[in-house]
Write a structure and sequence with these properties.
Blueprint: E1 5-6, E2 12-14, E3 49-56, E4 60-66, E5 69-77, E6 81-86, E7 91-97, E8 110-115, E9 124-130, E10 136-144, E11 147-157, E12 169-171, E13 177-181, E14 203-207, E15 226-229, E16 236-239, E17 245-249, E18 255-261, E19 276-277, E20 280-281, E21 294-295, E22 299-302, E23 310-315, E24 328-332, E25 337-341, E26 343-344, E27 347-348, E28 352-357, E29 361-366, E30 372-376, E31 379-385
Antiparallel strand pairs: 1-2, 2-21, 3-31, 4-5, 5-6, 6-7, 8-9, 9-10, 10-11, 12-13, 13-14, 14-15, 16-17, 17-18, 18-22, 19-20, 23-24, 24-25, 25-28, 26-27, 29-30, 30-31
């Protein structure tokens, strides 16, 4: 495998493969030569912001509206409940209760939901959870009369350990459903699943939401479900209006990773784990699987600076916080502070500390107006102008 070069966008390396989707590369495979990205020094330059509490919940992990439904928000709790809220975030009812079906380990449970992009014309909601055996299930439900009914199992993936389950469901611009799965857990990817294109683990899967079959155009013949590989634990990711992907991959011992990937380089992308942890070499004897572009982190965040579990939010499109418009908001479970970055020709610009504490950060969402919602271990809040 030869011809390693930097892509014009400046934040990925395009690996020219010897053969598309081939077996794991052998000794002597070319390695990324990009200069490691230093952990940025945050600076507080944004106007004051604050979190306005909307309600208390039990380990909320996902919140957002359904397309075509301006009257409600929906919130998923790790314990298995999908709650119907009013537009201001106040509890109204229960859309779905999976409390008897989900496992309850620290990184297990109900992990996310996604409404069909054509909702309510296509009245479907999709859920990702770990079942009582700890295995991943992706299930479609029909919404009728304010309840999710008639489950249709789309995908099940065996999980060897209780951690690193990923879990986000998100539709791409072609209407296919992306399913994020971590490397299966334990520590250090002991079975090297993330770089194995035949494995479901350590991957972004891409499926047809109508059937659960692999989406057309997936690149790896060893496993037609696989869209991208080389991930450790992709808890949350998002797209901007141009289809650029922002993905946070949780690190092992040293760094958290933010990847920024334009649409033309997402198919078959290799995010590097466990050859690399962020921009640090991790396994000296592990090589990249050939077949697609190798992604170099846009930036990393060091564990010795207090980071331990990155959570990526959306690119802000609301109106209440004009200084944030077009910026990606993210944070970390341990660091407990929100920061923002903007995409640039060389990856991302300086990290801006928003001077907002979000202890025990679980996730982000947006309301009907594009305003930013923040989930911590027991709270739903909205990001608002500060005093």
């Amino acid at each position: 495998m030869r011809g390693l070069r930097r892509a014009a966008a400046g934040f990925v390396l395009l690996l020219l493969p010897a053969c598309s989707g081939g077996a794991t590369a052998g000794p002597g495979t070319a390695q990324p030569t990009a200069t490691p990205t230093p952990t940025p020094s945050p600076s507080s330059t944004a106007p004051p912001l604050a979190l306005e509490e909307l309600g208390a919940f039990s380990s909320p992990v996902w919140v957002g509206p359904a397309p075509g439904d301006p009257a409600h928000l929906y919130l998923a709790e790790r314990g298995g409940a999908v709650l119907t809220l009013d537009a201001q975030g106040q509890r109204e009812g229960v859309l779905l209760d999976l409390g008897d079906e989900v496992s309850d380990g620290n990184e297990q449970g109900l992990l996310s939901i996604a409404f069909d992009p054509s909702y309510p014309r296509v009245p479907k909601v999709y859920v990702d959870y770990t079942d009582r055996n700890g295995d991943t299930r992706v299930v479609a439900y029909t919404v009728a009369g304010g309840r999710a009914v008639r489950p249709q199992l789309l995908l099940t993936v065996a999980q060897p350990y209780p951690n690193h389950n990923g879990g986000l469901l998100l539709f791409d611009r072609a209407g296919m459903l992306l399913v994020a799965l971590g490397d299966g857990g334990n520590a250090g990817d002991p079975e090297n699943r993330a770089q194995d294109p035949a494995s479901f683990l350590g991957k972004l899967l891409r499926i047809d939401p109508r059937t659960g079959n692999p989406a057309r155009g997936n690149p790896y013949p060893q496993n037609r479900y696989v869209w991208a590989l080389g991930l450790r634990n992709p808890w949350r990711f998002s797209f901007d209006a141009q289809g650029v992907l922002y993905l946070g991959d949780a690190g092992q011992n040293r760094v958290e990773e933010l990847d920024v990937v334009p649409p033309e380089l997402q198919r078959g992308a290799n995010y590097g784990w466990s050859v690399y942890e962020g921009d640090d070499r991790f396994k000296q004897d592990q090589q990249f699987t050939p077949g697609g572009p190798v992604v170099v982190p846009a930036t990393t965040f060091a564990h010795d600076a207090g980071w331990c579990s990155i959570t990526v939010g959306p690119v802000y499109t609301g109106r209440v916080l004009p200084s944030l418009r077009g910026a990606l908001v993210l944070g970390d479970y341990c660091k407990g502070r929100l920061v923002a970055v903007r995409r640039s020709g060389r990856g991302v610009g300086p990290v801006v500390d928003l001077d907002v504490r979000a202890e025990g950060l679980q996730g982000f969402g947006v309301d009907h107006r594009g305003e930013l919602l923040v989930l911590t271990v027991d709270r739903l809040s909205r990001l608002v102008p500060g005093a």
